[in-house]
Amino acid sequence: MSNVLKVAFAGAQRASSFFTAFQNHPETQVVALCDTHEPTLRAAGKAAGVTQLYTVYEQMLDDARPDIVVVATPMNYHVPHSLAALERDIHVLSEVTAGISVDECRWLVQACKRSKAVYMMAENYIYRKPCVLVTALVEAGLFGETYYAEGEYLHDVSALHHTAEGKPTWRYYWQVGVNGCTYPTHSLGPCLQWIKERPARISCIGTGVWTDPEHTMEDTVQLSCKTTSGKLIRIRVDMLSKRPHAMTNYTLQGTKGCFEGARYPGGQNLIWLADYCQDPNEWVPLERFEADFLPEMWRNPPPEALQAGHGGGDYFEVMDFVDAVQGRKPPTIGIHEAMDMTLPGLVSQESIRRGGEWLEVPDSRAW
Fold this sequence. Notes:
single chain; Dihydrodipicolinate Reductase, domain 2; 2 domains; alpha/beta
């Protein structure tokens, strides 16, 4: 491998959010793009200054010979495209979720074991500034023992269910065309970093179908997760209700403190810590702890990070991934962390079918 890592992208539209981070990284060079929709492919290639353009994914892997491939294709292609790269020992940064069935997740885990390449799932919410700071406070022991967390992904994506020509998109089939917690990782990812245990059992229930009867998914679904030691995580996903987007609805409770994320854009992140707050009813702004506990990555972020999507997550996950590929650290969301964030949602589809029955979540470490 040369000093500069060659990067290829599969799925030009979503992958565009990663372009700037890879193009500005001194150790990477974007060399190829692939998309089956040629107008999108040509436009993305022109915008990124990339001339190696492909409509066949395997041809891109074999002809461009990248060191890294970013899998930003529809959810149902994440595993097939990751497998093709891993079989060629090409490092994979895959969009969420890792897979769409338990069986194909098993295939992915086995492929990661066989491959010399690094696999990482691109769950960007864990890199948002408030989440990074809360994680640092957890690791410093200021929450004591954490035992309850919740996250909510409330995002009306009905405008993305059809193309401009009226054809159903992948979201139509794989996000709201299936009942259950089909898109849990943005909410579950940060919670798992704070609770530090995998979900061992889950239960999923829903509200019923009210807003748009065309879709199978119930308007709001609630996923309850019991971890290996019995801690509790609650996840709410709603991609259909008519309401403003809310992406920062997190709660964390420990034996020495608690955190309440902002409930709307511009709202305050609030925290109470026994070691710092004399009044048991005194909420303080989370930002008050930045001076002493904010990790270096967010102290002086470059303009590219501040301009990146998902609160800087699309930038920092690329930096983190390149560090893992270069052997400077393990991947933050390696294959087993990716499974911990993905498998509960897959098992939830059976739980909700059974009226919320508690079901076991497979442990990928045993596969």
